[in-house]
Amino acid sequence: MFAETTSEPAIQEQLRNITLGAQDVFPAADLAKKVASGRPLRIKLGFDPTKPDLHLGHAVVLGGLRRFQDAGHQIVVIIGDFTARIGDPTGKESARPPMSTEEIEQNARTYLDQLGIVVDISRAEIRHNSEWLAKLSLAETISLLGKATVAQMLSRENFARRYERGDAIGLHEFLYPLMQGYDSVQIGADVELGGTDQRFNLLVGRDLQAAFGQDPQVCVTYPILEGIDGKEKMSKSLDNYIGLTMPPAEMYGRTMSIPDALLASWFPLTTGLSAGDIAAILAGHPRDAKMRLAREIAARYHGAEAARSAEEQFVRQFQQRELPADIPEVRAPSPSNICALLVRIGLAKSTSYVRQLLSEGAIKRHDLAPDGQVGGARVLLDPKEDVEIPPAGFIIQVGKRRFAKVLPE
Fold it and tell me: Which band of pLDDT confidence, cut at 50, 70 and 90, is reported for residue 116?
């Protein structure tokens, strides 16, 4: 297939598609030369299994990886089981605590399962950087350290701030970007992908490859995805995220809550659609574009049928003002304080968060008749309220998309 893509128009088309959603490609001319060579390129993505779950923000780079894979290139996923012992200092204002081997191995298994939702793991080359890093002798490590300078490391923004404040910087932290860069040397990477916050590490990989006599990799970085609130980057702690393993209805509903202004950035970052398709969708009505986006995201992680079902449920629930048909049932003691109740049943992460929701009028109670029919609804406002749970229970609603049927224990 690569012999057919060496004409100039075909090369340009491939470059547009494989870099869709990327913020920077450097050097861009080198990527064009590598693609024009007609050979499958080796595309590196490394990750340290420091957390067990992934969300759409993490999947932005995975989407870029999938575009390269769909173009016929060989993706190489580096599991940083050795570098995780140090911890990536990127964006950190203090040294990261070490992780146990058991935590690293468990998180790595979860990561691989979730990576397989986006990319074809069966066609990926999976490597652990302990394969080569654990075997480095002291002499080899010193030689590796000799390929960088203290000034180069201190040019990294977070290191510079910590140094100016007089905060401790462990020598082992300087090793991290060198070891990550050495991964590129070991696998002969042609291209490395990462978030914009990984630019320093990716450039170190280029420098090391040149020092070892290799053709330096091209660095492709992707923007940090904004959360569904449109204000902060996507984060589980801010509850503005869409998890890769969330149910399709919740994925769909959360996507429909994003501001219209995010559509242009979310489409290339969260879907596999081509640039031409995205342009055509964005030319239409924002409501229709958002529904298409929600459907694409739900389908990408759960399949087309689940996405259609999620859309139908959303239309019934919000456009026709119906409650969802599959509200989960939970049990709690009666009476229960409203703040403690929502935390207990999993609709809020903390009592302080419940108080915030109450102040915003974001919590409703739907009463139920003995025969199960839904009666009236009222907005809950008082964080001190003790809620009596009748035998038939009631439905509690948080925001527009989260529901639970509460029954007495």
Answer: confident
Question: Tell me: the pLDDT tens digits for 158-213?
Answer: 777 887 888 888 887 888 889 999 999 999 999 999 988 888 889 999 999 999 99
- Measured CA to CA, the distance from residue 317 to residue 325 in angstroms comes to 9
Where are the extended beta strands (E) located within 30-87? Answer: 42-47, 74-79
Q: Give per-residue pLDDT as tens, 24-80.
A: 999 999 999 999 999 999 999 998 877 667 889 888 899 899 999 999 999 999 998
* Phi and psi torsions of 146, nearest 5°: -70, -10
CA distances from 304 to 296, 333, 409 (A): 8, 40, 38
* Exposure of 127 in the CB half-sphere (CA atoms within 13 A): 24
| Fold (CATH) for 329-408 | 3.10.290
Measured distance CA(76)–CA(70) in Å, rounded? 14
Running DSSP on this structure, what letter comes out for residue 22?
Answer: -
Bridge-based pairing state of the strands 402-408 and 394-398? antiparallel
What CATH class does 2-222 carry?
Answer: alpha beta
DSSP-derived letter for residue 36 is: H
Determine how many CB atoms are found less than 10 A away from the CB of residue 28: 14
With contact defined as beta carbons under 8 Å apart, do 189 and 43 qualify?
Answer: yes
Dist CA 313 CA 65 (whole Å): 32
- Distance between CA 338 and CA 335 in Å, rounded? 9
Phi, psi (deg, nearest 5) at residue 246:
-65, 150
Cα–Cα dist 82/157, whole Å: 24
3-state secondary structure of 192: strand
pTM of the complete model:
0.66
One-letter amino acid for residue 48 of the chain = D
Q: Are 96 and 88 spatial neighbours (Cβ–Cβ below 8 Å)?
A: yes
* Residue 319: predicted pLDDT: 58
Residues listed for the chain: 409
Domain segments of the chain as ranges:
2-222, 248-319, 329-408
List 404's β-bridge partners, or say none: 396
pLDDT at 92 over 90: no
Domain 248-319 fold: Tyrosyl-Transfer RNA Synthetase (1.10.240)
